[in-house]
Amino acid sequence: MAVAHIILLKIKPSLSETQAHDILKAVAHLKEELPGVVESVHLGVNFAARAKGFTHGFTMVFKNKAALETYDKSPEHIRVVTEVIRPNIEDLIAFDYEIEDYSSPRL
Description:
alpha+beta; HS1/DABB1-like; Dabb; Stress-response A/B barrel domain-containing protein; Dimeric_a/b-barrel; globular
């Protein structure tokens, strides 16, 4: 079953919007560096006031949990997290879930 990996970032206020976009570009590039692991990447900048300070985010879709685990342990992912993301954020939220063929929870 496919898995969605959602990350919300609270970018440091000292970063320019260009620098923040560079972070998202590094994340998007992981799809190319890990062919067959990441199925899709969606990136964006928050526009709503209700985001509790989270300014940027992305969603990745993986074929299954094993693909997410491969991604999580890959040197490319670890490098982006440690060198690009963590030094430039105040906080991060990660949320992973299996994608069902429908949008409501199983009853």
